From TrEMBL:
GO biological process, one term: phospholipid biosynthetic process
UniProt keyword Transit peptide, yes or no: no
GO CC terms of this entry: membrane
Gene3D superfamilies xrefs: 1.20.120.1760
Name of the protein described by the UniProt record: CDP-alcohol phosphatidyltransferase family protein
Organism: Streptomyces malaysiensis subsp. samsunensis
Family, as annotated: Belongs to the CDP-alcohol phosphatidyltransferase class-I family.
Length: 241
């Protein structure tokens, strides 16, 4: 028999509702400031609905007694990522408001360094919080890679797609689902992806340097994934034995 979550999940659902409301408010502000088009509105609204639905379901299955300060920071970051997603979608129909795109992305990247510290200092680290943080990171990198690909070429999409390709491959090769040891190198490479894509997307570099920065991001990410895959392969027997 499945165990039910003994905690009252109403406060947790309220947190996700506040997050969805914040996303709608940000879209209204963007729509007022830069005249966000239909593509931006629809994409932003879809992002808000999907985030609310997925997070609400995950919380209902968790054993969290409260949402926690760290998850609130991550939720704020998700709201900013939703704004970036709307701007990127809108860029296919109208000129990109680069200043707004850079500002939202920069704050989201800064907050990425905050939520983990908040979780450690408040003793509220959780597997759900770590997964939430990782998924927000992945979406931001995917969206930025889509934006940068419009100027540098489709190969940049590999940066945003690599993590999802890894997850899809792990469904076929279960040994890829093993728990990886903590790695400063992995965290550094992950953080650099957003920074390098932001710099390229800000359109402040000449084409050769922008191309080189994106290529560096892809090279570092490929090395990091290859390193982890190699470790998972070498330890597969000890984890399944």
């Amino acid at each position: 028999m499945a165990l039910n979550n003994p905690y009252n999940t109403t406060p947790l659902r309220n947190e996700t509702a506040v997050g969805a409301a914040a996303q709608l408010l940000l879209l209204v502000l963007l729509g007022t400031a830069i005249d966000l088009g239909p593509a931006g509105w629809l994409t932003g609204l879809a992002f808000a609905v999907v985030t609310w639905a997925v997070l609400t379901r995950a919380l209902s299955r968790s054993w969290l007694a409260s949402f926690g300060a760290a998850n609130r920071v991550t939720l704020a970051r998700a709201t900013l990522v939703g704004g970036v997603t709307a701007l990127v979608a809108d860029s296919f129909e109208s000129p990109t408001p680069v200043t707004a795109l850079v500002a939202l992305t920069a704050v989201a990247l800064i907050l990425d360094a905050v939520d983990g510290q908040v979780a450690r200092r408040t003793g509220t680290s959780s597997s759900l919080g770590a997964r939430f943080d990782m998924e927000v990171d992945a979406v931001l990198i995917l969206v930025l890679s889509i934006y940068v690909a419009t100027s540098l070429g489709p190969w940049v999409l590999l940066i945003g797609a690599m993590r999802y390709l890894f997850v899809a491959t792990a469904r076929v090769l279960p040994w890829l689902n093993g728990r990886l040891p903590p790695s400063t190198a992995r965290k550094t490479v992950a953080a650099l992806q957003g920074v390098l894509l932001l710099v390229v997307g800000a359109d402040v570099l000449p084409y050769p340097l922008a191309f080189g920065a994106a290529l560096l991001a892809l090279t570092l990410l490929s090395w990091s994934f290859a390193r982890d895959i190699r470790w998972l392969w070498r330890t597969r027997d000890s984890r399944t034995g």
